[in-house]
Amino acid sequence: MQPGFSLRLQNRLLELDRLADTVEAFGEAHGLSPKLRFQIRLVLDELLTNIISYGYPEDGEHSIFVGMGQDGSLLRFVLEDDARPFDPLSAHRPDLEAAVDERQIGGLGIHLVRTIMDRVAYERVGDTNRLILEKDID
Amino acid sequence: MQLVEKENGEITVFELGGRLDSNTSKVLEDKVMEILGQGKKKVLMDFKEVDYINSTGLRVLLLALQQLKKIQGKLVLSSIKDYMKEVFEISGYTEIFPIYATQEEALAHFS
What we know:
With about 140 residues, chain A is of the alpha+beta class.
C-alpha cells in the first residue's frame, strides 16, 4: 500500500485550511521536508482556489476529490471535480486593468504550479475535470 | 494572519505572522492603504513568523510596491523563511524587492 491521502472538499475557499492540515499531517508523518510540504500545500491551494473560484458559475454545493500518493521518489496528485469543463491550468484571474503588470500577476499562481511540479496534465473525462500532477523528489 | 505595526522613525514596520493567502491578505492590503493615507512612504515587512504565502499574498506585496513607487516610497522585505524563498525567486520578486535576512539589516537599507 502506497502512502498517501485523499479527501473530498466542498467548493468553499475556507475548505483549503482543512487541506493544509491534511498535507502538514501527512508530510510530518512521512518525513517530507518543510520545503516540500510547503510546495505541495501551495500547488494544491492555487489549483483548488481556481476550481472553487471559477468552476461553478451557478455556485451550489459541490465536492472536489483530492488524492495524493507516494511511490518511492514520485509524488502523484489527482484532483477531480464535477465543475463545468474547466482547466485550472489555463485559468487566470479576470483582470479589468489594462496594465501589462496586472496581467502577468493574474497568471502567477499557475506559473508557480508549473514551475514547482515536474509534470501536469488536464483531461476531461465524462462529466469530470481531472488534473494529474507529478513531482520527482529525492 | 497576525499583523503588528511599529514605527521606527519614518519607517513603518509590519511584523507579519501566520498565513498570507486568499483568506488573509486583504488585512495587509487594507493596512498598507491606511498608512499610505497617513503619508507614510517607508515600509518594512518582516516575515519572520509567516509560515505560508500563496499567489494572492504575493500579489498584495506587488500592489503595495506599486503604490509606494508612485509616491517615491520604498518597500523592503525581511526574514523570509528558507522554504519560501523559492517562490519569491520564481515570481521574480527577488529582482524587484530589496530582501534581507533580518529586520535589522532591512532597517539599515533606509539609511
